[in-house]
Structure formats: C-alpha cells, structure tokens
Amino acid sequence: MPQKDPCQKQACAIQKCLQANKYIESLCEDVIQAMRKCCEVHAGENSVCCSGFAKEHKSTDTKTII
C-alpha cells in the first residue's frame, strides 16, 4: 500500500478554500501558508503535493539573490 503524502491534508484544504472563494488566492492565504510550512517541514521527503511549492520556493530564492 502506498504511503500517504505528508501534506495531502493541506493540499486538499487549499483546493476546498479556492473553490469556496471563486479561486481568489488572497482569501486563502492562511491555508496556502500552512501548505508552505508543511512542505518545509517535510522537505526531502517524496511529496507529490509539495512538488510545485518546492519549485516556487527555489524561484523565489533566485529572485531574492538577483
């Protein structure tokens, strides 16, 4: 049986929030932040849910450096 993604709960919460708020991200900032935090805690683990957040974090770091 495959292991459950450690941040799946947060990923589902983002989808639920966005759907409830007509996809206005600013209204879901708290659940998006919870997802980022979860992905940071579980960095290095094989998390499909965090794959987009890891890329976002790296591109943000690059922007900060420049």
TrEMBL record:
The keyword Mitochondrion applies. Pfam families: CMC4. This is Cx9C motif-containing protein 4. SUPFAM superfamilies: Cysteine alpha-hairpin motif (SSF47072). GO terms for cellular component: mitochondrial intermembrane space. Its main location: mitochondrion. The lineage of its organism: Eukaryota, Metazoa, Chordata, Craniata, Vertebrata. The keyword rRNA-binding does not apply. Keywords: Disulfide bond, Mitochondrion. Belongs to the CMC4 family. Disulfide bonds join C7-C38, C17-C28, C39-C50. It is found in: Mitochondrion.
